[in-house]
Structures are given as structure tokens and as C-alpha cells.
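Incident review: delayed structure delivery

Summary: a single-chain prediction request sat in the queue longer than the usual turnaround. Root cause was a stuck worker, restarted by the on-call engineer. No data loss occurred. The affected request and its eventual output are reproduced below so the record is complete for anyone auditing the incident later.

Affected input:
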Amino acid sequence: MINDFPLTEWFFYALKWLYGVVGNNYFITIVIITLVLRLVQVYPDIKSRQTQKKQAALQPELDKLKKKYADNPQKLNQEQNKLMKENGVGCIAGCLPMLLTLPLFFCFLAAFRFWGYEQTVKLTYETIENPALAQETFNSFKFGWITNIWQPDSGFAPVVTPASTVATYGNTSACACNTSGGIGNLVLFHQGYTDLNGNYVSGERIWNAFVENGLAEGEFGSGDMQLVKSEESQKKYDELMSVYKKGFNNGWFILPILATAFQFLMSFIGQRQQKKQNPGAAAQQQGMNFMMYLFPVLSLFVCLSSTSAFSLYWVLSSVFQMISSAIINAVMNKKSKPADGEALTVK
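Output delivered after worker restart:
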């Protein structure tokens, strides 16, 4: 979307650029972008684990302070902060992975959603102008058991966007990251696209085809561009897209289930690791217990209502994160072996 949240726009352009570089292959595009983002998060993850180890080493001293200042919470807080600062332990460093993960989650959710909007608009245009080419485009949306990667992986999801919701393209309710509205803000209408035959199609040509067929109204390039919401336009859209055997059977819930399972497994492993490193940090463990169930539930809900492309990205992201975490833990544990039995020197 034009004039959207900057990070969302960057991710959207990166996805489309990479898609063209790898020969218009959705799977390879998603794998590469997931790997790149995981590599970006490796350093903050390492810093977070280092902080956790330092906190674990400081826990006996922190417990002593709790007993000493049990009746003076303000003094306790001051002394704890002083102790952690003197030993180079920062609370923010331990939260860096989560601080990075959540913005990436929501911005990529929006980027994939906008990409899905454009793919559906493109498919609709080609169905109007060139049905044979449109069928090729639609076939390119297939991924494994999923008929259309731009619809949710769900046995109850439609194979193509239903007419009742087609007018919501670019609506501000699409994602919390979205700060723009209106179908005219789709990048597709500003830059056009190159079809599977290598022919360039301008945004104006796409829009005029929509207007001529009663699916849209408003002058191209103006703020009045909008899709028609009448019963007649919805009927036309349904008839137009009926060639794709529209139904509510786009997938089999596999990606949402995998996303949920991997998120729960990551949280479970992380909780066990934290307990092993710092069994005395009860307050932190209570928070981790809550997160162990919150994020998997959030993943299930989002993946059931978002494009299969985003669900695939989220599953791959979880897998790569588990692999990188295992490698980081192995390396850090190996490095710390010579120091076994040595306590952190508390200043």
C-alpha cells in the first residue's frame, strides 16, 4: 500500500522484488526472506541469552537483597538495579528478541495481506481480459494441498475472495499496521505489473477494465476510486470468478496447526531452558507460562484468518528459529564448560 507504515512498505517491496529475482516462485521467495530475517535476529538473540546467563549467576545475590530489604520495596528496587548495572545486566537486552518479533509479525502480516489483495485484483483483471492467461495465473497460486495461497489454509475458506468482502481491499481494518485506506493506494495501480507472458499492464488499464465491467467507479488516480458494493456488482463478480469453482475448501488447516504447534514447542523449550539457567526467577517463569499459551493461540487465530502465504512464512520462521536457537545454545554451552563451577564475580 502507498503511504502505509514504512516498515510494512519496505517488506512489501522486498517481497515483490525478491519474487521477481527468483523467477516468480512464491515458496523460494518466502524461504529466502525468512532466512534473512532470522539472521538479522540472531545477534539480539545471542545478547538476550547472555543476559539470561548473567541474571542466573546474579540470582543468589538478588535473593539476598530481597530478604535484606523485604520491608522496603523502594530500596530493594534501587539496590537490585544497582547490582545489575554494576554487572552489566540490562533488562532491555533480555527482551530484544520479543521486541523484534512482534513488530515483524504484524508488519509482515500486513505486507502479505496487501500482496494477496494485489494478486486477487490481478486475477480478476485477467479473468475479464484474458481468461486463458487468468487460469495460468490461478494455477500458479496453488501450493501443495492449498488451492490458492492468497486465501487461508482452511477447509472453510473460499478458494477466491467472495464478492461480499471484495470491497474491503485496502480497508484500514485489514491490519493494525495499516495507516492508509482505499483500493487506489494499492501499489498495483501505481506501478502496474508484468503478466506471465511478459507483457506490461498499467494500473490505469486494470482500473478501466474494472469500471467498464461495473466492478468499480471513480476516476483513475483520484481519491474517489472505489469498488462498487451493490448487489448487481457482487453478482457480476461471482459470475466472473465462478470459473475457478469457488467453494469453501481452500485447504486442510495444516499450516495453522503447524504454526501453533511450533510456537508452543518453542515456548516450552524456552521455558525449560530458563528454568535450568535460573530456577530462582519465579516471577519471570510465571510470565513465560503465560506466553507459552498466548503466542500459540495468537498464531492459530491469525493463520486461520490470513493468507496461506503468511502462514507458510510463519511456520518456516518458527522452524528456523528453533534450529538457530539450538545451535546458539550448543555453542554457548560449549564455551561455558571451562568455566563450570566458577561463579560470576559480583562487584
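Verification: The longest strand covers residues 193-194.
Action items: add queue-age alerting; document worker restart procedure.
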